[in-house]
From TrEMBL:
Domain Carboxymuconolactone decarboxylase-like as annotated: residue spans: 17-93
Name recorded for this polypeptide: Alkylhydroperoxidase AhpD family core domain-containing protein
Domain of life, per lineage: Bacteria
Record InterPro entries: AhpD-like, AhpD_core, CMD-like
Keyword Oxidoreductase (UniProt): yes
Amino acid sequence: MSRFALQRHYKSMMPLVELGKQVHSAGRLEPALIELVLMRCSQINGCAYCLDMHSKDARAAGETEQRLYVLPAWRETTLFSERERIALAWAEELTELASHEAVSDAFYERARQHFDEEALVDLTLLVVTINSWNRINIAARTIGGSYKPGQHG
């Protein structure tokens, strides 16, 4: 059972909602890449509600089951483009923040080969936003499983 209903506090959540819409509508990140990043961060954080949501939205947008199944082991497959691999690594670095040395200068330079500055800022904001939603849903004990594709889009 959830602790509190997010719908009841939706007005308080609007800055996060608007930030997510801004990143999506900017058009600098491909929809498939966005869903992969949202899924990967949610996997790391263990947010069942967000995993339910983004796996359904990804499939509805045409993502393959195979890529979703192997996403936790994306480094060990050839199913992801170099741009997607950089985005997934960026998402993991920012989600885990193992140290203040996360996102090294060398990795940043590698990422800049695939993302211009605006797109990299959007990718960063996407990771920040989903990590916030993961934490909110985990704190609220939001139950996963009932999401319908596009429900929050």
